[in-house]
Amino acid sequence: MTDEDREFLKGVYQTLQDRPLEAGDPLYEPVYSHEGCEDPVDLLYGAIRYCETDSVHLFSGFKGSGKTTELYRLTQLLRDKGYTVLYASALDFVNPAASIDITVLLFAIANAFEEALRREGLEITGDGYAVRFWNWLTRTNVDLKEIGLKAGADLKFELRDTPLFREKLSNALKGRTAELHGEVIAFVEDGVKAIRKARGEDARVVFLFDSLEQLQGDVGDEGVMDSIVHVFANFFKFLELNYLHVVYTVPPWLKFRLPTMPVPVRLLPCLRLWDRDSQRPTFAHGIAALRRLVDRRLPGRGLNRLLGEKPQHTVDRLIELSGGHFRDLLFLLREIVLHARSLPVTLDTVESSILSVRSQFLPISLDDARWLAEIERERGTTPLKSRETKEIRRLTFLLDHHYVLFLRNGEDWYDVHPLIRDEVLRIAKSAEPTRTT
Fold first, then answer.
1. CA–CA distance from 242 to each of 54, 98, 188, 193, 424 (Å)?
2. Distance between the two ends of the chain, CA-based, in angstroms?
3. What are the C-alpha distances in Å from 179 to residues 140, 257, 430?
4. What pLDDT shows up at residue 65?
5. In this structure, are residues 298 and 12 in contact, taking their beta carbons and an 8 Å threshold?
6. How far apart are CA 269 and CA 281, in angstroms?
7. Rounded Cα–Cα distance for residues 349 and 357 (Å)
8. Hey, which residues does 266 pair with through a beta bridge?
9. CA 437/CA 429 separation, integer angstroms
10. Which residues, in sequence order, are CB contacts of 279 under 8 Å at separation 6+?
């Protein structure tokens, strides 16, 4: 290849990088807005707009679903309608590997709200939340020395990074959750007043509290997951904040553990490329959406230069093999760029690139292959046989790593990624007992 060819491939490779896209980025393709697809962001947007002054919403997605990019889109939709949108990451305030309770979460929410306000150039009149929290503690019967809290201590650091302090404080404040929630409510109301003073009395405020889905704990540690379930099952009303629309991004598995939440978990599905029928008939709108995505990344004659004068057959095959995960589609195209030895690339290059991506899923354990084969056969509305944490964690792993696809067609359903479908069935069949006559 010439130096010009190498420069072309370098540019293509960089264009195919998987990264969150800001609203308005020319590379963004609204795949969830195509005909026949339920758009969770549009549902969130509508629910916020139809509520008067305050509301709570839950948003999530498995890895690779584009959650961050879709949050950017939600932010832009709301700002275009005049909303003040505040953003904060929970990871700045809580330890993702540690159990959480409502005391720690409320403190984190209040501090995150305050920092988000400051990024907007706004300040709450009076003391910040850390000082208010300290003053509130001194008015209670909590023995500050007993819980190891000294004047001037960095409460944010202590609650995030000191397990013993978290435990002592939580124990000391048992039975005071409603009182603590009232303190947080008062603080948030002061923040909304600051916004309305600066932006008008009719200002509407949305707070995006991101990254709660990253509270996972270590493999085999069920305590973190159980603590999140406990908070959302028993203290949901304390996540409501007056005069504020709050969007919490929660772990996707919360939908499995708590299927009857006060509000639904809006979960980003995989882009549907086929229907549930036994023959998996092609869903044309999904295919068209990913064709447009490829055209955005390789506009003009770029696609022809990479794949040849008639690239559509190869593109459609890559789309089919991606399973509707645009991250996997970009991965397949990047591998073709890396394997390229001439332009346009040869069929052998395409095949070796597909094998390279497939190898990322392998090896598959026999137990996983059996479960995956059952999911492939049934394509049901749930693969779970129980709501035990261990089984939910295992299914979440398979979904996060794209072995299993979460799809929607009026209802939830699941299928196996086409890249590994044949291998799964081969492994499962090889393990079947041999029949004797």
1. 6, 28, 7, 11, 50
2. 61
3. 10, 28, 61
4. 87
5. yes
6. 19
7. 13
8. 59
9. 19
10. none
335, 357 contact by CB (below 8 A): yes
Distance CA 275, CA 226 (A): 35
Return the pLDDT at 7.
Answer: 97
Per-domain boundaries in the chain: 3-18+274-359, 39-268, 366-430
Q: What is the pLDDT of residue 171?
A: 81
Give dist(CA 18, CA 127) in Å, integer. 42
Q: What's the full length of the chain, in residues?
A: 437
pTM for this entry: 0.91
Hey, what are 354's tokens?
């597909």
Whether residue 235 contacts residue 197, with contact meaning beta carbons closer than 8 Å, is answered with no
- Measured between alpha carbons, how far is 295 from 290 in angstroms, rounded to an integer? 9
What is the C-alpha separation between 388 and 393, in angstroms, rounded? 9
d(CA 165, CA 160): 9
Give the integer Cα–Cα distance in Å for 387 and 264.
Answer: 18
Do the Cβ atoms of 142 and 219 come closer than 8 Å?
no
Is the bond preceding 363 in cis, omega lying within 30 degrees of 0?
yes
- Does an H or E element contain 248, and which? strand 245-249
Q: CA-CA distance, 340 to 38, in Å (whole number)?
A: 37
Residue recorded with tokens 């509305």: 381
Task: Give pLDDT, residue 170.
Answer: 81
Mean pLDDT, contiguous 10-residue spans, the chain (437 residues): 96 94 90 84 95 93 90 95 95 88 91 93 86 82 68 71 78 86 94 94 95 75 85 95 96 92 93 91 94 94 95 97 95 98 97 97 95 95 89 93 93 96 94 62
What confidence score (pLDDT) does residue 176 get?
87
Query: Coil, strand or helix: which one is 94?
Result: coil
State the amino acid at position 282 in one-letter form.
T
**Peptide bond before residue 433 is cis, with ω within 30 degrees of 0:** no
Spatial CA neighbour of 117 closest among 93, 90, 89, 84 = 84
Q: Report which of 360, 312, 357 is spatially closest to residue 336, judged by C-alpha positions.
A: 357
Instruction: Classify domain 39-268 at the CATH topology level.
Output: Rossmann fold (3.40.50)
Please give the Cα distance from 270 to 398 (Å, whole number). Answer: 13
Q: How far is C-alpha 240 from the geometric centre of its chain's CA atoms? A: 21
